[in-house]
Specification:
Layout: H1 4-19, E1 47-51, H2 67-71, E2 77-81, E3 86-87, E4 93-94, E5 97-103, H3 112-116, E6 122-124, E7 140-141, H4 143-146, E8 147-149, H5 150-156, H6 158-175, H7 187-191
Parallel strand pairs: 1-8
Antiparallel strand pairs: 1-6, 2-5, 3-4, 5-7
Helix pairs in contact: 5-6
The protein binds iron/sulfur cluster (2 copies).
Length: 192
């Protein structure tokens, strides 16, 4: 029947309108920005870089291997390797990104950079209030802006962050050198 779709749609609207006075679940509108719905844990927006501890430079996990830069489909990551090295999260001297930019006007939030990173150094953020008046430079996020602490990652993605911490702790434990064998007891001391 012509118009049956419209009538069905109107019935759904009416049911939700009346129901919203009786069932809290049907009240889905919030007074944004004063009120905000919690975001689901698997919500993602643009990538950010993780650092351990309190120092964004010393704790930055990224070692500037450039895998994410090569794999990013729209090529919106730009990295320049450092000339010197700094200790990584296991104390091993590593290169770090002197420059790490992501152009979020181009990024399509595909998460490929996260999946290919061997160092758990880049993750997807949930920050979505990023609108700017200018289109170009202002949407280019620099290393300083991209670097966020592991505590922040725990706050936005507690399950994933705990899994990553456990994985890194296991890797660090495996790489620890085995304790040196104890020196044999001298024969004279053993017989006396
Ligand atoms: S999320 Fe996708 S498009 Fe965005 S920086 Fe990562 S790989 Fe590139
Ligand atoms: S974020 Fe990961 S993949 Fe990208 S350069 Fe840094 S360590 Fe390599």
């Amino acid at each position: 029947m012509i118009g049956s779709g419209i009538l069905k749609g109107m019935a759904v609207t009416a049911r939700n309108f009346v129901g919203s006075y009786f069932e809290k679940d049907r009240l889905i509108t919030v007074q944004y920005p004063e009120e905000r719905n919690p975001l689901p844990e698997n919500y993602r927006n643009f990538p950010f870089l993780i650092y351990d501890g309190d120092d964004p430079h010393a704790g930055l996990r990224c070692v500037a291997c450039k895998i994410c830069e090569k794999e990013c489909p729209p090529q919106c990551i730009y990295i320049v390797k450092s000339d010197d090295k700094k200790p990584d999260y296991m104390g091993k001297p590593q290169l770090y990104p002197k420059v790490f930019d992501i152009d979020i006007s181009v990024c399509m939030s595909c998460q490929i950079c996260v999946e290919v990173c061997p160092f758990e150094a880049i993750k997807m953020d949930k920050e979505f209030e990023l609108s700017k008046r200018e289109r170009f430079n202002h949407l280019l996020q620099r290393k300083e802006e991209l670097s966020k602490s592991n505590d922040y990652y725990h706050k936005i993605c507690p399950t994933d962050a705990a899994e990553v911490d456990a994985k890194l702790a296991e890797a660090a434990a495996k790489k620890k050198p085995a304790p040196a064998p104890s020196a044999p007891t001298p024969v004279s001391a053993a017989v006396s």
